[in-house]
């Protein structure tokens, strides 16, 4: 048992989080790409020197990276043992994006740096940034019809991009030769490296203040307490076996849904997650690597118990039976571009569905559950340069006991937000003709789901190619306890006097557009919670007054009463 006083422990705990927050801010403020600088699609953390387990992560980091970065840090540690004689130097920085080595999709690129204090390896600093392009079949990397990972982009094992503080120009040349708009990528690379340098400086200052021994003691105590808190939360769930399902529209290649079958066994202070009954590996890019599958479960439980601090101890009571033989345990060369942004959200949705029966007061109907990944790549003749615009959008959250779902909320897996319309219009030759609330898209319930959004993008100059990997186009986010499903995702592309809709509803690639052509998207609304007939008349009247529903529509959905 630790003999640290509570005040010192709390100060060190928050100090470690602050180190990560400052890394996050340094990253976003110096990144070139709007997806990072405005959308905040990145994360920074501190990881254990021996096994890479999570010590602290910034409050502004993407939750889906909570689990995956500790797996990728572990992969770097294994690489150091096998290829570098188990030695690293101050100033070394590894780069890795291999999905099968603790990653997500190829566009999420990780930097991992050893942190030394007075000559001793104390911890690892790591971050992840979503690069707008990493090569592959389509601009932006979200290939809806890839059948092997090589079609999705450049795959990097852990290699040293910086050696003793000096960037390896040969490795950089390989990177630049395999990416579109490579000249813009160097800014993101340097921003990502600078964030780790900021972390070094701030963590050194924290240890200088309290001493290495005290900080190590605090880290061990934080992990112990997080595990204890999570076990206390789990203990309040009735023992039993709980089951839930969710579906992915299709894999982008075969037009059939993929099913996640989640069985959760609660016994004492442990939860065991069994997904072995899920669909087999798929041909298209909707396979999930095991690191992402586990991380999706971690973030789902963190959604349910948000007050438990995040570190490796948080995950100790969560046992995942590795679902080999399913699309949730992708192995080389299965394509995986949809795993982090889409499949992970279906996994979380299945967790929510399973546990609603056990703890309805803590849970909610399904959220929109898609990042709405849209890539537009082309050449701007006015600025005489190529571009890639990567866009992700929000949707409705599910209703919950005591309240309606949030409208236009961020995805289940992260706090990332869509870059502002004004920024996108300045960076790229496009015009938003519409950006509005998708009224009526929330699932009916005693507490209705939140609403998705409508947006329409018109190409102003040149020609471009459009690709998308989205979901919930076949079925809307599920309601619970009698609530109705939310509205489905829809996509249509107007090309002159023709209207095109993707055969796979929410996934397609290489759609050619020209000046004046418009891409229109409607994002899903959240599911409804509870019997719609129990919705209070004043709540229905308020929705009608605000224009969310017409009177006839409200009567059809809720049996509106005067």
Structure description:
- With 562 residues, the chain is of the alpha+beta class.
- The protein has twelve helices and 20 strands.
- It is 30% helix and 23% strand.
- The strands form four sheets. It has a seven-stranded antiparallel sheet.
- Helix 1 runs antiparallel to helix 5 (182-210).
Keywords:
562 residues; alpha+beta; five-stranded antiparallel sheet; 12 helices; globular
Task: Indicate the topology.
Blueprint: H1 6-30, H2 34-37, E1 42-48, E2 54-57, H3 64-83, E3 93-96, E4 108-117, E5 120-130, E6 159-163, E7 166-167, H4 169-176, H5 182-210, H6 212-235, E8 240-248, E9 258-267, E10 270-274, H7 290-304, H8 312-315, E11 318-321, H9 339-356, E12 373-380, E13 385-391, H10 421-427, E14 430-437, E15 453-459, E16 464-469, E17 490-495, E18 498-500, E19 507-513, E20 518-522, H11 537-545, H12 551-558
Parallel strand pairs: 10-11
Antiparallel strand pairs: 1-2, 1-5, 3-4, 3-6, 4-5, 6-7, 8-9, 9-10, 12-13, 12-16, 14-15, 15-20, 16-19, 17-18, 17-20
Helix pairs in contact: 1-5, 1-6, 3-7, 5-6, 7-9
- Tell me the fraction of residues in β-strands, as a range: 15-25%
Total of DSSP H or I helical runs spanning 4+ residues: 12
Structural class: alpha+beta
What number of structural domains do the residues give?
2
Largest sheet, order of strands side by side? Answer: 2-1-5-4-3-6-7
Describe the structure in brief:
Helices cover 30% and strands 23% of the residues. The protein is of the alpha+beta class. The protein has a 7-stranded antiparallel β-sheet with strand order 2-1-5-4-3-6-7. Strands 14-15-20-17-18 form a 5-stranded antiparallel β-sheet, with helices on one face. A 4-stranded mixed β-sheet has the order 8-9-10-11.
